[in-house]
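Our platform keeps sequence and structure together, in a single record for each protein. Nothing more is needed to write down the fold, since each code stands for a local backbone conformation. An entry from our holdings is shown next, in its original layout:
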Amino acid sequence: MEIKKGKQLLATPLVELKNINSFRFVEKAINYEIQRQQEEFTKTGEVKKPGNKTTRGWNEERQITVLQREKEEEADYRYFPEPDLPPIRLKPEQIAKIKVQIPELPEQKILRLMEAYQLPEHQTRILVESEKNADYFERAIKMAAKEEIKASEVANMIINKKVDISKTNPEEFIQTIKLKKVGPQIPQKNLEEKIKIVIKDNPQAVEQFKKGKLTVIEFLVGQVMAQTKGQANPNEIREILREKLKSS
């Protein structure tokens, strides 16, 4: 606060107000302090030095501020260095090395993905909540452009769990999106023939599946996708494969 003394503006000392728990009390306390300090100056003609800090509490019942204590400086608190903690002095090259090792923070990733792929902010924030989802998105998006699939479509499929990304590689994931838009483009009979060829050509994978390693089916799905040049539905391939492997 400033008080005018002739042509000179004098700065009043800093007053910290406490015991204020509403905006209404804030207004009342400030207005009271303005009036109090002006009256004090009018009465004494003196203004304390800016260094003389005080703490005053708001008394709602009396509608005034009350002096609680003079504000100490750092020296009054008797701060002193911790003797068992020596100062750490890092060289510029050490700082640069540490910065490289720090992983990308969520807010940084959100801004980068929004800028790079024109994603809406709310969608990007949901995507980045899961590091697994965000990493999968970035792997899948590299293939999406070739199929003219929008980044928002990829993000939406991941966020809404339309495909189990733990069991589907990014290439199959993109093909699934594509097929949802255009539908399967290979006849059922031709698809089954391709599946039979893949089963015949991969006896080791088939044997692993029969011994209980069920995740190997994803390898076989990928082989069928390659045989059909991406023109089949991975989910349909997976179902047919399971039936044929169980019956073989």
Q: What stands out?
A: Strands lie at 2-5, 8-11, 15-18, 54-59, 64-70.
